[in-house]
């Protein structure tokens, strides 16, 4: 289990260079897995879910960019926090999905 922070340059969820092990850090880790906590913050660039993806949790507190969700599933076993000020865009509302397990929660800010 690790913390994964979306970098200032943003990018595709499934590209290792999008992620850092520290807030504001350089590309020094791999894409998130089902055991990782994901943080997309005020310092993060735009992120695109570009393939079937997973995370333990997704926290967008303070984020003001765009999270684009292409026609894939994002499976989360814990919580998802989306906040006002950010944009969450579904590229295909029929096939884009966030799948939560029975104990997961989703919080929206507006």
SSE diagram, text form:
Blueprint: E1 3-6, E2 11-12, E3 19-20, E4 37-39, E5 47-49, E6 53-55, E7 57-59, E8 66-69, E9 73-76, E10 79-81, E11 87-90, E12 97-100, E13 105-107
Parallel strand pairs: 1-4, 2-5, 4-7, 5-8, 6-9, 7-10, 8-11, 9-12, 10-13
Antiparallel strand pairs: 1-3
Shape: globular
Pattern of helices and strands? EEEEEEEEEEEEE
Mean pLDDT: 93
Task: Tell me the radius of gyration.
Answer: 12 Å
Widest sheet, order of strands = 3-1-4-7-10-13
What class would the helix/strand composition place it in?
Answer: mainly beta
The biggest beta sheet is recorded as:
6 strands, mixed
**What is the count of DSSP helices, taking H or I runs of 4+ residues?**
0
Instruction: Please give the alpha-carbon distance between the first and last residues.
Output: 30 Å
Helix content: under 10%
Which strand-content bin applies to the residues? 35-45%
* Parts with pLDDT < 50 across at least 5 consecutive residues: none
In total, the number of strands is: 13
Question: Can you describe this structure?
Answer:
The chain is an all-beta fold. It is built from no helices and 13 strands. The strands form three sheets. Strands 3-1-4-7-10-13 form a six-stranded mixed β-sheet, with no helix packed on it.
Main attributes?
110 residues; mainly beta; 6-stranded mixed β-sheet; 4-stranded parallel β-sheet; globular
